[in-house]
Amino acid sequence: MFNDCIIMAGGSGTRLWPASSSRMPKQFLPLPVPGVSSGSFFNASVERALAVIDRDGDGRVIIIAGRSHAAGIVKACENCSVEDKKHLVLIPEPEAKNTAAAVACAVNFIDWMSGEERKVLVLTSDHLITPLERFVVDASAAEAFAQADRLAVFGLRPRGPETGYGYIEAGGLVSRQAEKPEVCTVTSFREKPDRQTAETFLEAGNFFWNSGMFAFSSKFIMNEFRRSAPEVIGPFGKLRAPDERSFRTERGLRILWDWLELDEAYQEAAAISFDYAIAEKCSATVMVSAGFDWLDVGSWDEYAALLERSGSGGAETFRHNAENCFVDSDIPVALIGTEDLIVSVRSGKSGGPGSVLIVRKGQTQHVRDIVEQIKARGRDELL
C-alpha cells in the first residue's frame, strides 16, 4: 500500500466548455458510468486513492486544487464517510503553476508532516479509469518500484492513432509476473503527435498513451527535483512547516488554509509540467503496462457518448425532425430539422454568464479554437 496519494485537482477543462469552466471544472462534472459508484470524475479519483493507501495506519490523500475550487472540493467530499475524511487533506493553491509545482508543494508537505521516507502515488482527477480492482493491481506493481527508488509511470496500450495524448516509448522488459502487469524501461516521452506520427507509433508497437500518473518515494523525488528542477522545488524549501493553527476544518474536510509564505513560494516557482521537469530527465524511470481501461474524456464527442450510454443528459428537450442530437442544458431546448449536433447550454441562472455551444459531432476538437477566440477578445469571464 502507498503511504500517501496526491490528487491533482486543478485546471479548468475548457475542452468541455461551457459545461466545464473555471467555476465548474471538468473534474466536478457528473460521471454516470456503470461500475463507478461516485458522482463525479473527482469523486472517482478519491475512491481510487482511498483504495491504495494504508487506511489502517497514517495513509493520506492530499488534494491539490486552486483556492477558487476549494468550495467545490468541500462539497464533493460531503458524501465521504467520517472515517474516509480522516485521511483527506486539501491544500489550496494560490495560483496555477502547472503540475511540477503542485507535486513539489505536496511532497514538501509530506516530508514535513512525516519526516520519513514515504511511498507516494500521484493521480489525476479528471480521467475515467475502470475497473477499480484492476487499477489496484497495477498500482501495487508501481508501488514495488517506487519502494526501490524508481519513478514508475503508467502506460496504456493505444486503441488508435490518437493525436490528443502524450506517448511513452517503452524499452526493454524489466518485470513479468503472472496476474501482474508487465514493467518496462522508458526510452523517451513524446508529446501530442500529428496524425502521421501517431500512426507510426501505433505500428511500432512499443508506444503507449501516457496516463499522467506517477509513483515514487518521497526522498527519491525530492532529490530528482533538486537535481533537475531546482527552480521548482527551491521556493518551497523556504516555507515554514505548517502547524495546527495553519489548518481549519469545513464539513469534516481538513484544509491547509494558512500556510505561511505559500503565496510567495508559488510566485517564485517555475511553471512547468512534471513530465518536462522530472520524468523526461529521470534515468530511473519504468513504465507499468496498465491493464485498466483509461479515457481522458477530452472532447464533447467522448463525454456526450458516455452520457448517452447511461441515459443521462439532464435536459428537457423538444424535437421535430431532429436526428442523432445530444443536448446538455440547464434550461429547456427545442430542436427542429437538425442532425448530428451536440448542444450545451448554461443559462447563467446558477451564477456567471450564460453560454451556448452548438457543434456538429466529429468536430468537437475545435472547441479549443473557440476558447482561444474568447481569450483573444478578453472575455475570460465566459470561461
Task: Provide a descriptive summary of the structure in words.
This protein is α/β, with parallel strands linked by helices. The chain has two domains: 4-295, Spore Coat Polysaccharide Biosynthesis Protein SpsA, Chain A, CATH 3.90.550; 300-382, no CATH class. Helices cover 30% and strands 26% of the residues. It is built from twelve helices and 18 strands. Strands 6-9-7-8-12 form a five-stranded mixed barrel. The chain is globular, with a radius of gyration of 21 Å. The relative contact order is 0.16.
Task: Please list the strands of the largest sheet in the order they lie side by side.
Answer: 6-9-7-8-12
Helix content: 25-40%
Give the count of structural domains: 2
Number of strands: 18
Order of helices and strands: EHEHHEHEEHEEEHEHHEEHHEEHEEEEEH
The helix count comes to: 12
Properties at a glance:
three-stranded mixed β-sheet, 30% helix, alpha/beta, five-stranded mixed barrel, 383 residues, globular, 12 helices, Spore Coat Polysaccharide Biosynthesis Protein SpsA, Chain A
